[in-house]
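SAMPLE LOG
Freezer: B-3
Tube label: C17
Construct: single chain, 256 aa
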Amino acid sequence: MDFKNITRPALALAICLMWMADTALADSATARTKGQPNITGVWERYPSPFPEGVTAFDDIPPPGNGPDLKEPYASQWRAQEAKRKAALDAGTPLVDASTRCLPEGMPTIMQAIYPIQILQTPGQITVLAELFMQTRRVYLDQPFPAPDDLAPSYYGFSSAHWHGTTLVVETRGIRKDIQFFEIPHGDAMTIAEHYRLIKPNRLRVDISIEDPEYLNTPYSFTYEYKRNDKYRISEYVCDHRLDVINSDGTVSLGVK
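STRUCTURE (predicted):
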């Protein structure tokens, strides 16, 4: 709006209308979040995602006892785990998504190797991960697209609703090449999450993965986080200038 050529009464009216519009938006935001727990903030895994004695990403074990995979997928997955561990012990780790600077996708982003930030706004929950500067969007009270319109992606499509003080999220449409601890999955995989504040600054997320093609039973586990209001998410540009991907699929350090 050009305020230079506007009369004082008209200017006053314009300012009043703008204020009313801003107030309406604020009131709408308050109404839509009234009574809901405040999960906005920077969150760190608690306890640390690194078990005692573990310092490398590749050494972190899958949560719980791992997935209850059908055969032959169970044997194939265990063989791949053994191969990766042997390569790591030999000092020649295998190439993975991190080596290629690819996003973690779902549900790996929720593992929170580095802190994550959750933004709770009307109609959407946004998860910002420090690692690789990833962004995940969760849409509140939105239907899933038709199957033909749900293009597979790193984070899939996440639809959520509040059930009392619990945020219930369902995610579909994860790309088959995006794997959590290299666990294979099919197109029909769904991920259910239940977010609960168990203390003012402690967040619990119960995760359950269902996949009729690959899993005998749902793969369920829990992550907990503590809020850290003093931490600021830093820029994390994935630029592995010293990582050399060898022809045999291993990774070594050097200068490209």
